[in-house]
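DM from R.C. (forwarded with permission)

"hey, sorry to bug you on a friday — could you get me a structure for this? deadline for the figure draft is monday and I only need the backbone to look sensible"
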Amino acid sequence: MRLSKKQKGVWFISLLTATGLSLGIYKYIEFLKQYDSGIKEPIEEGLAFEVVEFNSSDGLIFHRPNGTHVEIPANAIVDETGQEVVGQVEFRFREMHEAREIFLSGIPMQMSGARNKHLESMGMVEMRVFDGSEELKLKTGHQISVDLATQNKPNDKYNLWFLDNNESWEKSGAFETVVNERREMALSRLPEPNEPIKPVKDVLFQLASDENMPHLKVWNGVDWTLAPGQNNHSLYRAMRINWDKIEIKQLNKIKKQYRISFSSKKQDRKGNIFSENISVIASPNVKKKDMSRLLAQYEKDLNTFAEIIKNRALEEERLLQESAMLNSFTSNGFGVFNIDKLEDTRVLAKINANFDFEDELNAKINKVKILMICENQNTVLTYNAFDWDELPVLDAEVELIASLPDGSFAYVSSEMYESVLDVGNISPYFENKRYFITKKVSPEKLKALLFSDQLNA
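My reply, with the result:
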């Protein structure tokens, strides 16, 4: 049967409509499959910036408790047009050393053009300068000095990377791992007591005071007799060491016996901290009437010295919190810088993953992403619902987090992940179906959960 012109027209329009609809559906599916680019914080201010105001004419020296150190030169801040900015500006800074911190920062770790490659971090910083809401730049020809704290020395596979345009990673010059000289110098400047006077006889010795041990002044020139039955070698060693702290405590008033305690905290060449403590029991060779006067003066001096000891201990503790090593580099601008090595995502096997929240929503249409926090690789991998049938298995130390349309999160702990994964029954040659029951949490609870677990660890 031959079609009329009208019928042919209707058929042609129907064909175009169907073709257009199919093309539209195809494009929409391709849109759903696309991955977001750039920095996408899962929680607003999940990993907040430290904010410091400084005068651009003076520059900035910024030092963190862990030893990270940033220096911005004077007269080096310009606006979008290249005009120098004068006056107060705002420096915003944050650093990431753990996979959980990377997750909260929203900074991507997979290469934009090849999702089978990812960066494994050994320290990352994000530096910005603002004037109000306007982001500023570094003047051409100037450089920022950065010393980034590190606990381990990177091997030659690591490079300095820069997140170009806040979207794609590019290699950005070189870095050098150096000793934290600021820390070492500050530790060396902590007050050290003078070496005590060597005993006159095997069982006699004296204690010497100085500006670091003013509470011992009252005992200057007093001979002490070592109580019998003690190991003389401990006393001989005590006389040869510069101690941080010397305390005298009365044990027996009638017998005039006192415990003298020596303590110090030292650091070897490898940066390891060790403590040494020695105590002896001794009696001062002084008359009874002189003893009362000496004890009264000693108690007075000891109260004053207690504050000195406390402040010294606090300063030493603060310095020892700094990393012994730094990854040092310079940059010619602000942004995100990372000490990383680029790795192929080495897959032990793949799993076809399903989640309990899929019973209530279509994860593909809602563009739900699974973020894999990989602790051992110190990276974060992102996969949308179209790729959940081939989620890579790197190891069992992984947390899974999905951002749901209602603003909440579905969380799978590493313990739950390992239990469901069942590594002993997973194969790289067969389909491995796994069903995950998640814990639904608010953004605040997720942040608290991640940070509290990190602190406990």
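R.C.: lifesaver. DSSP finds seven helices and 28 strands in the chain.
me: no worries. Confidence is low (pLDDT under 50) at residues 194-202.
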